[in-house]
User: Which sequence fits this backbone?
């Protein structure tokens, strides 16, 4: 029975992680059982299932904690230069990435990437913090925001973001957030032509000519940025937003950090740690 309970608990955990569990069976104890001549094994109670699941989750949690500690050692951050005073803990506030990924920075720079989505309410709530941080961050930090490319709607909104960046109108990204979350205007539709018309109405109302927008909208720079965003999203396996990657080595988010203000402090400390070695 204990084996059956543990198998059921493991099956439940696998299902939660998106894996398809194999059917759980228990071998009959005798030939009579195999022939169906004995009473069926009683189904475990809810209390027994919960107890088995809790025991399994505790074991998994212990393994994860040990794994996180090993990851921290493997990325080669000496204890004396890890984040200030034990304030941040690997596996809790951030995760080391293995293997570390290449970055597009110059000598002495530290890359910080935010993966976001215009339709994400959490990204919208965080945007004022990021706007403020961009003004105050250390000069050696190279910060970029990459729009996720999960589907056609995300791609259409991403094209808007990168067109605005190419036109040096990053200030309108915050206004685009407001259009989506305050005015119910998604700035993306069922097809590309409709998306373009919605976006043209928005940018023309904010001082960008139709000709300028169309030129960059279909231009090489924006197309390249879309391709890069998709490649980065796949490289870092981004499945939720907002998600942050520091120098190709660490990944974190608002929940892991403990809140928006803590996230800013964590990004500063991770970047400073990377700069120091």
Assistant:
């Amino acid at each position: 029975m204990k084996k059956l309970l543990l198998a059921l608990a493991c099956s439940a955990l696998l299902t939660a992680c998106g894996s398809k569990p194999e059917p759980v069976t228990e071998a009959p104890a005798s030939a009579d059982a195999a022939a169906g001549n004995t009473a069926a094994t009683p189904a475990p109670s809810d209390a027994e299932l919960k107890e088995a699941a809790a025991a399994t989750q505790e074991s998994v949690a212990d393994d994860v904690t040990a794994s996180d500690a090993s990851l921290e050692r493997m990325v080669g951050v000496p204890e004396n230069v890890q984040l200030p005073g034990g304030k941040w803990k690997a596996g809790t506030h951030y995760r080391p990435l293995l293997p570390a990924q290449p970055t597009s920075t110059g000598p002495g720079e530290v890359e910080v990437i935010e993966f976001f989505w215009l339709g994400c309410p959490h990204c919208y709530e965080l945007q004022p913090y990021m706007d403020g941080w961009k003004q105050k961050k250390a000069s050696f930090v190279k910060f970029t925001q990459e729009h996720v490319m999960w589907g056609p709607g995300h791609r259409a909104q991403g094209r808007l973001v990168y067109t605005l960046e190419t036109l040096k109108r990053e200030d309108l990204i915050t206004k685009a957030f407001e259009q989506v979350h305050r005015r119910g205007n998604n700035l993306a539709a069922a097809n590309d032509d409709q998306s373009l018309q919605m976006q043209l109405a928005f940018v023309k109302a904010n001082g960008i000519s139709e000709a300028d927008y169309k030129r960059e909208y279909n231009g090489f720079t924006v197309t390249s940025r879309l391709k890069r965003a998709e490649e980065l999203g796949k490289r870092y396996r981004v499945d939720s937003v907002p998600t942050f990657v520091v120098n190709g080595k660490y990944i974190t988010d608002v929940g892991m950090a403990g809140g928006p203000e803590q996230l800013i402090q964590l990004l500063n400390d991770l970047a400073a740690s990377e700069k120091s070695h």
Summary: The first strand starts at residue 95 and ends at 96.
